[in-house]
Write a structure and sequence with these properties.
The complex is a heterotrimer of chains A (about 350), B (about 270) and C (about 270).
Chain A: H1 2-18, E1 28-35, H2 41-51, E2 53-60, H3 63-71, E3 79-83, H4 84-92, E4 96-97, H5 112-118, E5 129-141, H6 153-156, E6 164-167, H7 170-180, H8 190-203, E7 207-211, H9 215-220, E8 226-230, H10 231-240, E9 244-247, E10 254-263, H11 269-280, H12 282-292, H13 299-303, H14 307-310, H15 319-324, E11 326-327, H16 333-348
Parallel strand pairs in A: 1-2, 1-3, 6-7, 6-8, 10-11
Antiparallel strand pairs in A: 3-10, 4-10, 5-8, 5-9, 5-10
Helix pairs in contact in A: 8-16
Chain B: H1 2-31, H2 47-53, H3 56-88, H4 92-107, H5 110-121, H6 129-153, H7 158-165, H8 170-199, H9 202-207, H10 215-223, H11 229-253, H12 255-266
Helix pairs in contact in B: 1-11, 2-11, 3-6, 3-8, 4-6, 6-8, 7-8
Chain C: H1 8-29, H2 40-43, H3 48-81, H4 87-95, H5 102-113, H6 118-125, H7 137-161, H8 165-173, H9 178-207, H10 210-214, H11 223-232, H12 237-266
Classes of the chains: A alpha/beta (about 350), B mainly alpha (about 270), C mainly alpha (about 270).
């Protein structure tokens, strides 16, 4: 017993020694809610240094998690970054407040076409500021495939048995199947969704795993020939294994945009705008880009990018890819219920 | 024959330890991997260790994690041990109800417990470090009770009763009679509580305030982009430090017993 | 007899932080989106897909508990027979791996078990055929047993290590063989510890989902996955809460039966 107490005492002492270096406490604070690893920590420090405004930073893994915590009202957030359809939901529920983007010094850095894309969930560009965007496509190992990969068909025609990693997320998985079948990814037509489910059930025996975050690693390690991934992941995959390539299939895909909104609870609007403006500043946006390596809508950053990155479809989607892609929007409650049913049935299929 | 049996037993224990420590070896190897990806080997490096010490966020999270783990485990151990002693004295009905209620935090999926606590806490306390501490103590208590209870069952309570009859106060009797006999159960309970606390992500996530981070919440946040190698370095260091400290304590304090042990085993 | 009042702080704590949050969830389970009372979410567990997941979870949890007992019991026995005086150190040795982050350890298992993984690499060195167990229920089971084993070893070891040596000596002197000693003395006296272990393994195994997602390749659906999905992906908290409450009731009923036996055995354990 005594041993343990001594050990605990030493440990506690160690903890005290670890940190606690007192810094000057800022007078005002912004509470910021963002995805995990979605901002360079230095950027936050720099903002506090330049403006004297402290940041209380909170992270979420998925849009749903973010929504769950946000909507409980447990913490009063000032700024929230989330994905297109979730931003749409928050706007529709009256959680966002209008931001005067024209008064911001650097908001012009965001390319016009991204403001256009945003209209899918923010029709008058009043609330959402685009932050990062990308596509969904196939990351594949060039040494393990025969012939060119340019269609979602390779996932469904049975030629890569047990070599496919699909996304473990209902919306994403249905999305690409709908696209393959030639439907809109925002469809609410039950027949189309059931047709997609049928195809997915047929495909299930060929699927090695449904993963989310580990999908990229499985292809990098050579455990699978291809995986459905977000474009940003594909870039990282290529960094680790140069045999990997990324393609947005010709049938089209999804373009996703993560954006910032200022919540209705935000009291210090001036500070919030300062923060958004800061994120659009070229040097800051570059820093964030080099930390995250997702496609940036900030044209000042793109202009100064290396040629190699500019020509990488995982970092800079081509005009053609973008034209083929659709933005994902919030779907009705009853369609969500249908989605859940279909997804559960798919997962249950062939189970013990 | 005895010798063969001994060899067999040692092999078995070695295999169990290998099973428990196999992933730890993987983490240790990864901490020296000069590649940001966990699945490619980029050569040997020590740079994650130096990067670790300049990473303010990780050190801060480490501090929170240890405070939270040791604090919640200690408080849960006290409340849980007293609780177990009390529950054991209850009549059958009370005992059954109390034991069932005890299990509720482990019966519910973490996500349910986490969201339930969040919705409940929001009504009267701001989320912050305190709310996480309360949540951790709550889900730690069952593990303490479950560790202490078997000890209490095999405990000879007549000594306690006798002490009371001879005029010992309840507190005195508890500390001098009951406590020494259930000590290892309490210790196991404390360790398990600490383990649960260090591991928890979901409940922490929903009950924490903005800006409070534990190592778990940080690691989960990193999954999307790939775990930062600094985390492997930190795990390795923690592992090594704890191991060495406890080994030293064990060697220093156990010397007398140690020889006895060797004599015993060489028989 | 005032001993039971020692549990006062515990009871207050449980009411304040376990029961009240539980009521919040129960309210959500018994209502629908419009706030009206409904049984739908509670009985939803009997729908084919949920029932299938429930049965699969039961099978996995039973299997995991059984394997844990089979692995843990000899471990505890052998540890005792080496007569380690330093029990704290032994406990610590078993718990230490669990102090490394759970997700990191499970990801490490994924690397060990995967197709081009460490295990297959080692097998290849010995000229053995590689195993294709990644993303199957076997991998899921390995992960579960790994995660829960210490919670079985510790209580059993704790119970066994307390058994009075004199009792065993006495039995031997009276002519009992090793097996009789085990059957008549060690096993009955280790029962309370084993029961604690069963609760600590079986119950969390019923609700776990992370291991199924990572090691099972997301192809296996445990009831925990469904509850998680209702909460985090479908955002249907009412249904998620309902499923969770009915799962809880099922397990509680099961435990009540176990506990009754436990109570009855208390008096006879020494014989």
């Amino acid at each position: 017993m005594k041993k343990v107490i001594y050990a605990a005492a030493i440990l506690l002492f160690g903890i005290f020694a670890l940190g606690g270096c007192g810094k000057e406490e800022p007078k005002e604070y912004l509470t910021v809610f963002n995805y995990g690893e979605y901002m360079d920590p230095d950027v936050i420090d720099q903002f506090t240094e330049e403006t004297g405004i402290g940041i209380k930073y909170e992270e979420a893994l998925t849009p749903e998690e973010l929504y769950a915590k946000y909507s409980s009202g447990a913490i009063s957030y000032d700024l929230v970054c989330s994905s297109d359809y979730m931003i749409q939901r928050l706007i529709q529920e009256g959680e966002a407040q209008k931001v005067d983007f024209s008064s911001m010094e650097y908001a012009d850095n965001i390319g016009d076409r991204f403001w256009e894309f945003s209209r899918a969930f923010d029709p008058n560009n009043e609330y959402a500021l685009p932050y990062f965007y990308g596509t969904i496509g196939i990351l594949y190992d060039t040494t393990k495939v025969n012939g060119p990969i340019d269609s979602w068909g390779v996932l469904f025609d049975g030629s890569y048995k047990n070599d496919i990693i699909m996304q473990n997320s209902q919306r994403d998985t249905f999305m690409i199947t709908l696209k393959y079948l030639g439907y809109s990814l925002n469809t609410s037509d039950e027949g189309e969704l059931r047709e997609a489910q049928e195809l997915l059930i047929k495909q299930k025996p060929d699927v090695q795993a449904y993963l989310v975050d580990e999908a990229r690693d499985e292809v990098v390690a050579g455990n699978a020939a291809m995986a459905v991934v977000y474009s940003g992941e594909a870039y990282l995959g290529h960094e680790y294994n140069e045999n990997l390539a990324y393609v947005v299939p010709k049938e089209g895909s999804n373009v996703w945009i993560d954006s910032w909104i200022v919540t209705k609870n935000c009291k210090n609007i001036e500070a919030a705008q300062k923060f958004l403006d800061f994120l659009c500043r070229e040097d800051i946006a570059t820093k964030n880009f080099e930390y995250i390596y997702y496609s940036t809508p900030n044209e000042a950053v793109v202009a100064n990018m290396d040629e190699e990155l500019k020509n990488d479809p995982a970092i800079t989607p081509t005009e053609e890819d973008m034209r083929n892609c659709e933005v994902c929007t919030q779907i009705d409650e009853d369609v969500v219920t249908l989605y859940n049913e279909l997804w559960k049935e798919l997962k249950a299929d062939g189970g013990e | 024959m005895v010798r063969l049996k001994n060899v067999f037993m040692k092999c078995y224990l070695a295999l169990i330890l290998l099973f428990l420590y196999a992933p730890i070896f993987v983490l240790i190897v990864l901490s020296f991997n000069d590649s940001r990806s966990r699945v490619t080997w980029g050569g040997f490096t020590l740079r994650w260790y130096s990067a670790l010490f300049s990473n303010r966020q990780i050190l801060e999270a480490l501090r929170t994690t240890l405070f939270l783990g040791l604090g919640s485990a200690a408080i849960a151990t006290v409340i849980g041990t007293l609780g177990a002693v009390g529950i054991q004295a209850m009549r059958r009905r009370g005992y059954q109800i109390a034991m069932s209620v005890t299990n509720i935090p482990i019966l519910n999926a973490d996500i349910v417990t986490g969201i339930a606590m969040m919705l409940w806490f929001v009504r009267f306390i701001p989320l912050g470090f305190g709310s996480v501490l309360i949540a951790h103590i709550t889900f730690n208590i069952p593990y303490v009770i479950l560790s202490v209870m078997p000890k209490l069952k095999s405990l000879n309570l007549s000594i306690y009763e006798a002490a009371r009859d001879l005029g010992a106060g309840g507190v005195y009797a508890f500390f001098h009679i009951v406590l020494p006999q259930i000590g290892s159960g309490i210790l196991a309970g404390f360790f398990m509580a600490l383990t649960m606390s260090l591991d928890d992500f979901v409940i922490t996530y929903f009950t924490k305030g903005a800006g409070v981070n534990t190592l778990s919440t940080m690691i989960y946040g990193e999954i999307r982009k790939g775990i930062k190698p600094e985390m492997y370095a930190l795990s390795t260091l923690l592992f090594a430090v704890i191991f060495v400290i406890l080994l030293l304590f064990n060697l220093l304090s156990g010397k007398g017993k140690n020889t006895e042990d060797i004599i015993e085993r060489s028989r | 007899m005032k001993r039971k009042y020692l549990s006062t702080p515990y009871i207050i704590w449980v009411i304040g932080f376990t029961l009240f949050p539980l009521i919040t969830i129960a309210v959500s389970a018994f209502t629908n989106d419009d706030g009206a009372f409904t049984w739908d979410n509670i009985v939803a567990i009997s729908e084919p897909i949920n029932r299938q997941a429930l049965l699969f979870s039961l099978a996995i949890a039973f299997g995991c508990t059984l394997i844990c007992i089979l692995l843990a019991y000899p471990t505890a026995l052998f540890l005792k027979s080496f007569r380690f005086k330093r029990k704290g150190f032994t406990i610590f040795l078993l718990v230490l791996p669990m102090w490394m982050n759970f997700i990191l350890r499970i990801l490490a298992w994924q690397m060990i078990l995967s197709k081009n993984g460490i295990l297959n690499f080692i097998l290849g060195k010995f000229g053995l055929t590689p195993l294709a167990i990644s993303n199957t229920w076997i991998a899921l089971m390995i992960g579960m047993v790994y995660d829960f084993l210490p919670y079985m070893i510790l209580p059993i070891f704790n119970a066994i290590s307390d058994i009075d040596e004199d009792l065993i000596e006495a039995a031997r002197d009276l002519g009992a063989g090793s097996f009789t000693v085990f059957r008549k003395i060690i096993f009955p006296l280790s029962m309370p510890g084993m029961l604690s272990g069963v609760v600590m393994v079986f119950v969390p195994a019923m609700t776990s989902f992370v291991i199924a997602d990572i090691l099972g390749g997301g192809k296996l659906q445990l009831i925990g996955n469904i509850i998680e999905q209702e909460f985090m992906k479908s955002m249907n908290w009412h249904l998620g809460a309902g499923l969770s409450i009915s799962l809880m009731l099922l397990v509680l009923i099961g435990l009540a039966f176990t506990m009754r036996n436990d109570m009855e055995e208390k008096g006879t354990a020494i014989w």
